[in-house]
Amino acid sequence: MKIGKSSGVFAPTPKFKSLDTTRQTAVALLYQRAAHELGYAERPGASPSEIAESTGINHNTVKTAVRKLDDTGIAKNDGGVYSIPPYSFEAAEDIIQGE
Predict the structure, then answer these.
(1) DSSP state of 46
(2) Which range (1-5, 21-25, 35-39, 95-99) has the least confidence?
(3) pTM of this prediction?
(4) Strand pairing category for 10-11 and 2-3
(5) What does the alpha-carbon distance between residue 88 and residue 33 come to, in Å, rounded to a whole number?
(6) Is 21 exposed, middle or buried (0-12, 13-18, 19+ CB in 10 A)?
(7) What is the reported pLDDT for 5?
């Protein structure tokens, strides 16, 4: 994943497409956190619709993935907006790497 330098737009790399959808969703949520920290996004989280739109993953598939990430304690749900808090970065990395 890359963040567009001037736009802050989510720019998936070819390796992103090889990940399963839960791992892609974790990457998208980490992107959202990074974009927020860099001043490109208003909030550190995203709704399933926003994730689906930015990644091209089916909306229902994203909903399943964010619930799984929330159930495992990696993501936090705040009124339908999901984020990965800093204390979960390492666990998110483990999920993305397939551990």
Answers:
(1) B
(2) 1-5
(3) 0.89
(4) antiparallel
(5) 12
(6) middle
(7) 59
User: CATH assignment of 2-96?
Assistant: 1.10.10.10
Three-state secondary-structure class, residue 15: helix
35 forms beta bridges with none
Listed in sequence order, the DSSP H helices in the chain are 14-17, 21-37, 48-55, 59-71, 89-96
Residue 41 neighbours by CB under 8 Å, 6+ apart:
8, 32, 35
What does the domain layout of the chain look like in residue ranges? 2-96
Residues whose CB falls within 8 Å of the CB of residue 11, separated by 6 or more in sequence, listed in order: 1, 2, 3, 4
pLDDT for position 7: 60
